[in-house]
Design brief:
The chain has about 80 residues and is of the alpha+beta class. The protein has one domain. The protein contains 2 helices and 2 strands; from the N terminus they run H-H-E-E. It has a two-stranded antiparallel sheet. Strand 1 and strand 2 form a beta hairpin.
Length: about 80
């Protein structure tokens, strides 16, 4: 889960790099898929509800950020 949070927090910094739009969108889609996989694994391991929210921002170029929101119900 810590890896998913680190990726979610560093995603805007990665996407702020001067990259061509197609490469930026490909990188965004790849990171969304990685976060979805991590969320699916975490959901199976500790039985938590995880929601991936994809938000689009328009600045000088199109940026996409992924916010990982989770409500954890860890059973001891």
């Amino acid at each position: 889960m810590a890896l998913a949070l680190i990726l979610a927090l560093t995603l805007p910094l990665i996407l702020a790099l001067p990259l061509p739009l197609t490469l930026t969108l490909s990188l965004t889609l790849a990171l969304i898929l990685v976060l979805a996989l991590i969320a699916w694994i975490v959901n199976d391991v500790i039985e938590c509800d995880v929601v991936l929210i994809v938000a689009k921002q328009l600045n000088a170029k199109l940026l996409s950020t992924v916010v990982l929101v989770g409500h954890f119900n860890v059973l001891g």
